[in-house]
Every structure is written in C-alpha cells, then in structure tokens.
Amino acid sequence: MTTSVRGDQLARLLGRWHALPGRRRSPDYAALAAAVRGLLSDGRLALGVRLPAERELAEALAVSRTTVSAAYRNLRETGHLTSRRGAGSWTTLPHGHRVATSGLWTPDDDLDMIDLGVAASAGPVELVPAARAAADDLPRYLGSAGYHPTGLPELRAAVAEAYSVRGVPTSAEQILITSGTQQALDLVLRLSVPVGAPVLVETPTYPNALAALAARRARISTHGLDIEAGWDGEMLLGALRQTRPRMTYVIPEFHNPTGHLMPASLRERLVATAHATGTELIVDESFVDLPLDGAQMPPPVAVFDRHSRVTSIGGMSKAYWGGLRIGWVRASAPVVQRLAAIRVGVDMASPVLEQLVAVHLLRLSAEIVAARRAQLRFRRDALVAELRDRLPEWRFITPAGGVTLWAELDGPISSALSRAAEDVGVRLAPGPRFGLDGTLERFLRLPFTLPADDLVEAVRRIASVRHDLDHAPGPSWRTPAVIA
C-alpha cells in the first residue's frame, strides 16, 4: 500500500524552506522544489510516498497554489516526482537510481588503514580470564552431544535476569541464544516475514538489517529520522496505520547510525499502534548498555507489550566484543520454541565454549560495561572536538550513547568522499549504505570505537581530501568494504 503525507506533515518537514541559505534570490517555487529534493536526498521523505494535493499543500504553507503547482512541475522535470492524472503524485529519484545494500565483500587487512566502516570495539581485558574459566567449565558438557538449540540454561537464565532488572519480567524459557544479533534478526524474519510481505524500517538504519530484509524479498517502506529531532512520532505512527506492515524493525536505544534515543511516550504509542494494525515489532537493543552521559534510560519497549507484539533482540557485540558471536531473542516461550525449530535447520546451536565465556563475562557486566562507557565517552569527545575544529561546516548532534555519530556534510558527497578517503588510508561508511535507493548522500556515519589518536588522525586525513574533492578525477573501481 502506498504511503501518503498530509499537507501539514510535509510543511513541518520542510520547515523554513523559503529562507534556506543561498536560496533567498530564487523564486518561491524553485526554493520549494529544492527543499523537497533535499528531504528526498536526506532520506527524511521516503520514495514512493504520495504528496498532498496542490491546494492542500498551498494552504499548509500559506502560499499560492500556483507556487506549489510550479514546484511540482519542477520536481517532475528533474525526475523527483511522478504524477498521474486523478491519482496523485509520488516521490521518485531520477532514472530509477538505486543503491544496493548487500553483496559486500571483506577487504584484505591493511595495517595502515584506519577502518571507520565497522562500529565495534576491541575485546575487554576480562575476555582471556573468562575464556580460561569457560574452558575449566567445559568438561561438564562433554558427556552430551553439545547441541543446545535454545542455548545453555545458565546463559539463558543470565540474559533473562538482565531483562528482569530492566523492568521486563522474563523467564529463561523466553530467551533463545543465537550466533550474534544478526542471526537473531534473521531467525525472527524467517518466522515472521513471508516472502514479499510489507515491512517498515527507519531510514537511515542498520545496513545488514536491510540486507536481511532483501534476502526475504520484503516490500520495504521507510520512516525518515531527522538529524536533530530523531523520530517524528506522528509520521511514524501514521506510516504504520497506512501501510499496516507485517513487521516493523526499530532501533530505539542509541539508534544506529544516528545515535538517537526514542522517548518513552513514543515507545508506548508505537506498541499500541502496532497492536491496532496487526504489526509485529522487532526491537534491536544492541546499544542499550551504552548510555554515555548518565541520562535516565526510558523503559524497554517490551514493558508496554500486552499482546505479544514485541520481539526484542540483542547481543554482546557492542558492549563486549564482536568476535564473541553471542546474541539472543526475547519473546514469548512458544515463539522461542518455534524459533529454535527453525534454528536447527540453520546451524543447530551456538558453540558451547563461547556460551560459557559469555556466562563469565555477564557475571562481570557491571565492571566491563562501566569501563566500556568511559572509553567510548573519551573517544566520542575526541572525535567531536576534531570534527568541530577541522570540518566546522559539518552538522551533527553529539550522541548521548551508542558508538556512532551521524554527520550531515556540506554537500551530497558522501560516496565521493569515501572513495577519496580510501586513498589516504581511511575507510568510511557512506550515507547511502544506511538507506534505500541512493538517498542519504549528504550524510556519513563515524563510529568512535577506535583509539582517540586514530580518530583524530582519521579526521585530519578526511579534511585534507575534502577540500580538493570538487576537482578530483573520476572514481575508479574498488573492492566493497564490510559495513557493520
């Protein structure tokens, strides 16, 4: 089903469209068309959305219908709008341009490369002692076949206890241990999303989630996040009501890549609307352990679930170590059993030794997570200071948690900048990787998981190539990099 946007909603997204820098001398219709194109390129206005009728938008903007009509005509001429008499006008991109979000290859390791494509930290010092302790525990399990499709009982109990402490009473039977958060998402999609089913995701969003949805051949609709305000609750819930998707995927805690934290009021309304529309919610809590500024965390989305509409997924990649492939699903006990049945046909079970390592690490969670937060806070502040010093024209909000900063660049140059940065030893994740159909070229994700000195040096190199980018030669073919 096509999503539509009302005149007052589009007016709110456009903001001060008539007073944008450099546009004061342009006709109103040209400034309006340019502002709509900006929303499309930034991903705040999704593709395939039906725009309001000319009269409705004119009233919402307090301009003449002639101005809106001319703006729509301009958008059609540039390929950003497709109209059909009697049916309306839909947002598009010129020439049907699309950017794939899957098929990434792993690049060769390069010790001189500063890799900002992967938003994950090195392992904690407690990892080796935990591995040794796990090896000592292993003989207890050697008498069995070693297959535990739902996970080791003691690890399931530890994860369940962590949910209960956060205010969501949870039993071990409601936990499925997986080989990382990505497998948790994949299993839930296999269970809940038939091929071709409609789904709703945020834009920007985690690129490997888009890849998983593409593998299911899902019909994806998007809700755009604002770089400053995050979610527009009215438009998010409106998209749910209009499209009535089979499933909605959200990252409410320190969203990847924008770093936003969803307020409690919207969490409650999101669950209620999902119930009303028959939508399953997949809530990715990968960054929930990483508030950096001491702010009070809102309750988990599952707190508001009364009808088994919420499936939570998480793991140990971000707060602990990505090389420890331990993730989980929290759902009702019957759903966990159904997921385990699917999981047997995928990889049987997670490794016993890694699960035992996870048990020992979770026992030290208070110390490990506190150290990780302090480390990330220091690195974030170093990155922010260097960006403001060397690239002051870039716009961003300092994230209050998580591991990524989402920067709005001084032009639609994200992909070109990423290619240029590769030549000076910096690997970047350009904005289009986090959206659909070639949008988000004005944005760049910058994780702050590397040492502060590396982040400062990376910004210095990025700034050095940015100033020559407008006169750089054409791009050459490169090996795609992993974005994680």
Automatic annotation (TrEMBL):
Database matches in Gene3D superfamilies: Aspartate Aminotransferase, domain 1, Type I PLP-dependent aspartate aminotransferase-like (Major domain), Winged helix-like DNA-binding domain superfamily/Winged helix DNA-binding domain
Stored SMART domains: HTH_GNTR (SM00345)
Pfam families in the record: Aminotran_1_2, GntR
Protein's UniProt name: GntR-family regulatory protein
Keyword Nucleus: no
PROSITE patterns: HTH_GNTR
Family: In the C-terminal section; belongs to the class-I pyridoxal-phosphate-dependent aminotransferase family.
Keyword vocabulary terms for this entry: DNA-binding, Pyridoxal phosphate, Transcription, Transcription regulation
